[in-house]
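1st attempt posting a full record on here, be nice pls
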Amino acid sequence: MELSADISAIVTGGASGLGAATAMALAEKGVKVAIFDLQKEKGEEMAAKIGGIFCEVNVTSDESVDAGFAKARAAHGQERILVNCAGTGNAIKTASRSKEDGSIKHFPLDAFDKIIQINLVGTFRCIAKSAAGMMTLEPLSCGDRGAMVNTASVAAEDGQIGQAAYSASKGGVVGMTLPIARDLMREGIRINTILPGIFDTPLLAGAPQPVRDALAAMVPHPPRLGVPNEYAKLALCMIETGYFNGEDVRLDGAIRMAPR
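the predicted structure (as tokens):
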């Protein structure tokens, strides 16, 4: 798919981090970008910066997502690109014993479900609704009606202590990529997933420097945190390269996460 001003895109989680970097990279190619996010102030600031629009969207809500798509499409037309970066995480052991009194507790199931709803179901919700819209378009000369990129995590393959919910949600994103590619293959809609390693995003911005240095030292090469623009470059490669479909690609400096 050739990126140009004739193409519109939606980036979930586009107000900051990996999503913001991708929104900027798409805009630099002339693409009309709509940002879906709950961070209204940051989202509006980013949209103004790239000449796009902001849609306050909660990916766990059908009504909110529908409203976001309606607003984006009214402004930019039917999107041909969807990049899913909205997500969150937590760190809770499956079951644990208190160091103080030896009492035992298990992972609260509502906390587990929250991560699944945002990271996995929210991602699929946006995919399904976007795919239905893309199917109304005529194929481009390359044969594509649209292209999608999802964000999983290396935790999908080597989750650490306390990451049962997060790893399950991201493993689900990886697991559904190929079936979705097969579901949409006759419609000319491609889908791929990136599994980022340890990236320098707002999640780590407040971490003490020794913690950041220790995380960087875990990466074989280059021994540093990932830069959001590196994610954006891979996302654009997946979108622009027509033979890129149904793939899950780690972007992690060859790291394999230890238990903790």
